[in-house]
Amino acid sequence: MLKLKLHWQILIALIIAVIYGLSFPDQAEYVTWMGDLFLRALKMLIVPLIVTSIIAGVTNMGDAQNLGRLGLKTITYYVSTSVLAIITGLFFVNLIQPGVGADLGLRKEIPELAAAPGNIGDLVMRMVPTNIFDAFSSADMLAIIFFSILFGFFITRVNQEPKEFLTNFFNAGFEVMMKIAHFVIMFTPLGILGIVVGVMAEQRNNLAEVLGSMGVYFATVLVGLVVHATITLPLIIRVIGKVNPVKHFKALTTPLLTAFSTRSSSATLPLTIDAVENNAGVSNKISSFVLPLGATINMDGTALYECVAAMFIAQAYGIEMSILSQAIIVFTALLASIGAAGIPMAGLVMISVILTAVGLPLEGVGLILAVDPFLDMCRTSVNVWSDSCGTVIIARTEGETLSV
Ligand code: ASP
Q1: What is the DSSP string of 13-42?
Q2: Going by fewer Cβ within 10 Å, which terminus of the chain is more open, N or C?
Q3: Could you count the other beta carbons within 10 Å of the beta carbon of residue 59?
Q4: What is the CA(334)–ligand 1 centre distance, in A?
Q5: Does the C-beta of 383 come closer than 6 Å to ligand 1?
Q6: Per-residue model confidence as pLDDT tens digits over 213-270
C-alpha cells in the first residue's frame, strides 16, 4: 500500500480539518477529542523531556569551558535573531501604519490579562524557583531550565562514580523520553485533525475580522514574519552555517506544520528534536541543549509580533511613539518573548509587559484578540523555525557534518 510521508499526512489532515471545521462546526466534537488527547500526550512529555535533555546535554559537554562556549553561542544567536525580527516588525509597522484609524469600539475583554507578569523584574526573578517541585508541577519552564543547567553542570563536578552513574541515568532517561515521543509522533496527523477542526469551528466568526477590519494589521505581522523566516534566517544559515535553507526547510516540515497547528513550541519540541537529529543530522549533544532552551526563550515570531502589536495599539489610540519609546518597545519585546511560555496565546498576554513599560493602555490588547489565534499559528512556526536554524548553525560551528 502507498505509504505517505508524515508531513504529507499532516498536510492532508490540515486541509480536511479546515474544510470540516468551517462547514460542520456543530459536529466538531466528534473529532476534537483526538486533538485534546494528542495535546495531553505532548504536554505529558514536555517537563521530563526538557529536564532529561538539558541535564544530559550539559553533562555530555563535559566541562565548564564547553558549556560556556556553547551557551554563549546559543544565547548570542537567540538574542540577535530575536532583535533582527523585532526590527523587521518595527520597520513594517511604521511603514504600513495598520493602527491609524482603527476602530476602538472593537475592543474585547481579556480575563487572562490580570494574571500577566507586570514588569521585567518579575520575569528575571521567576527564573530562580523557590521550590523546584512547584516549578515542575506548574511547568514553569524558565525555572526548570535554570535548575536543570545547574544540576547538569554540577554533575560534572562530583566524583567519578556518581558522575558516571548520573550521566548514564539522565542519558538513558532522555533516550526513553524520545522513544515515547516517537510513539506519540505517529499520531500527529490525527491529533492535528482534531485540533484544527476545533480551532476552525470556534474561530470561524473571527475569520471575518482577519479578512476585514483587522486585515491590514494581520498582513503587517504576516509580512514581517515572512521576511524574517524566508530572507533573514535563511541568509544567516547559508552564510554562517553553510547550510542549504531549502533542504533544511524540507527536513523540518513535520515540526513546522505541528507548530502551526498546535500553536505551541513546547508541545512541538519532541518533533523538533526528532527532525533536527534524524533529518538534518545534528548530534544529540547539541540538539538536546540548544532546542529545549530555544523552545522556551527563543521566539523570533513572538518578538516581532509583540513589537507590531504594541505599536498598533499606540497608533489605534493616537499616541505618538518617540524614538526612545520605540527603543523601549524593542528591548521589552525581546524580554517579553524570552519570558513567554511556549504555549498558545502566551505572546498575547505578554504584550501587557510592553504596554506597561511605555505607558500605553492595557485594554488595548482587547483590540487584537480576535485575530490572535491565526497570528499565533504563524508566529509559533517562525519560533520553531528559528530554533532549528540556530541548532544547525551551532552544530556547524562546532565542526559537525550535517545532511542539510
Ligand atoms: N504560541 C507561541 C509559542 O508557543 C507563543 C506565543 O503565544 O507567541 O511559541
Answers
A1: HHHHHHHHHHH-GGGTHHHHHHHHHHHHHH
A2: N
A3: 24
A4: 14
A5: yes
A6: 788 999 999 999 999 999 999 999 999 999 999 999 999 999 999 999 999 999 999 9
Which atom of ligand 1 is nearest the CA belonging to 263?
Answer: 1
Q: Whose CA is nearest to atom 8 of ligand 1?
A: 347
The pick from 82, 225, 228, 264 for probing ligand 1's pocket by mutation, whose C-beta has the most ligand atoms within 8 angstroms, reads: 264
**Ligand 1 in contact with 377 (CB < 6 A)?**
no
Please tell me the predicted confidence (pLDDT) of residue 32: 92
Q: What is the pLDDT of residues 348-361, one digit of tens each?
A: 988 988 998 898 98
How far apart are the CA of 122 and the centre of ligand 1, in A? 19
Per-residue pLDDT, 290: 93
Report helix, strand or coil for 342.
coil
Ligand 1 atom with the smallest distance to the CA of 305 is 8
Q: How far apart are the first and last CA of the chain?
A: 29
6-397: CATH topology: Proton glutamate symport protein (1.10.3860)
Residue recorded with cell 558516571: 164
Q: Determine if ligand 1 sits within 6 Å of the CB of residue 379.
A: yes
Question: Is residue 233 packed enough to be buried (19+ CB in 10 Å), middle (13-18) or exposed (0-12)?
Answer: buried
pLDDT of residue 115: 52
Where exactly are the structural domains of the chain? 6-397
140-156 pLDDT, tens digit each = 888 998 999 999 999 99
pLDDT at position 362 is 86
